[in-house]
């Protein structure tokens, strides 16, 4: 199996080279590729961390690593209390049943959440693949556990709803003998890359034709080890998704925030100022984990206002917002996660005009005591304020009003009265109504037309 996968990868590489690629396998050429427009317009995505780590559902998706590492004692205690003696990590695979996985319901839920794209973990650092990878031996969802093509099923359901599909894939595998041997050799050998990583990446693209390849597991191996630039040159030149596919920046050590289609930089990255390059913030409803934890507590989860506030700030700085949920081993997205997603979607149905396909304005946020953030579309400016001002009058110092200035609130039909502030900006009289009448319970959007 491994030799067939490696041979297929080599044939693709040769074929791509023979076609005379438009992008060469080096960062100056690859970084010059324009980012497909759909990604910047999408703004909102859902991340899904799902795998064998969902079986112990303890600590985080890094369960296996911690069990074998510095936190071994805590994890051995957990294993004694929850599983039969001598249970190994490999034994978890048969318990990863996905018995209640309903891909069409997931797709409906993500659509209701306002997500324009979804990224699924096809393989995390544990190495288990959520599709029948031909180079995974039996460590995959077709040969054990669910006996289902989880990647393919979700992709079909999402595309029925015109939601873009992204595939997360880890370059490394913590305990794969081939990877450990290459690592021991100082990454001077590439047996793991040629027989596992690259064949899987090509297989994912050819089988599922993803809109996005979300790479991870890059931090140990250098550029000369991973051969990522050769894969990306094929992806951009000769793959079936060459004109539409988007990739992130995790392709080798020292690559994040420097090379790739758009930048993740780091988990939960917040730039603080407007970056010059397209970026994405990935974060998780469970603040302590990306994978499902059975013992998570309510105070460890992001609430509705925190999610919306983070989304607004991210988009104001020109980023995309990728919000993570971790399903159970049976394939259930637990009700508290569903509630958070549906709350986000309800807010976006009212305020999405200020989010989707928007651009950063000349000012991203108010520099006064008012917590307000700006986006724009052409000459229209949107001011999203996160707390209701005392007295119901909002002062915005940044917009310059004119005689034709008009102010409305998204989700509220009446035009709002305003006057020019004594020093600069606008004083806006907000609707004088009970909070229950307002279209959303937090983070309201003013649409400003005719301002400079």
From TrEMBL:
Entry superkingdom: Eukaryota
Keywords: Glycoprotein, Glycosidase, Hydrolase, Lipid metabolism, Lysosome, Signal
Residues of the Alpha-L-fucosidase C-terminal domain: 364-449
Annotated catalysed reactions: a neolactoside IV(2)-alpha-Fuc-nLc4Cer(d18:0) + H2O = a neolactoside nLc4Cer(d18:0) + L-fucose; an alpha-L-fucoside + H2O = L-fucose + an alcohol; a neolactoside IV(2)-alpha-Fuc-nLc4Cer(d18:1(4E)) + H2O = a neolactoside nLc4Cer(d18:1(4E)) + L-fucose
Subcellular location: Lysosome
UniProt similarity note: Belongs to the glycosyl hydrolase 29 family.
Assembly description: Homotetramer.
Protein name in UniProt: Alpha-L-fucosidase
Species per Swiss-Prot/TrEMBL record: Chrysemys picta bellii
Classification of source organism: Eukaryota, Metazoa, Chordata, Craniata, Vertebrata
Gene that produces this protein: FUCA1
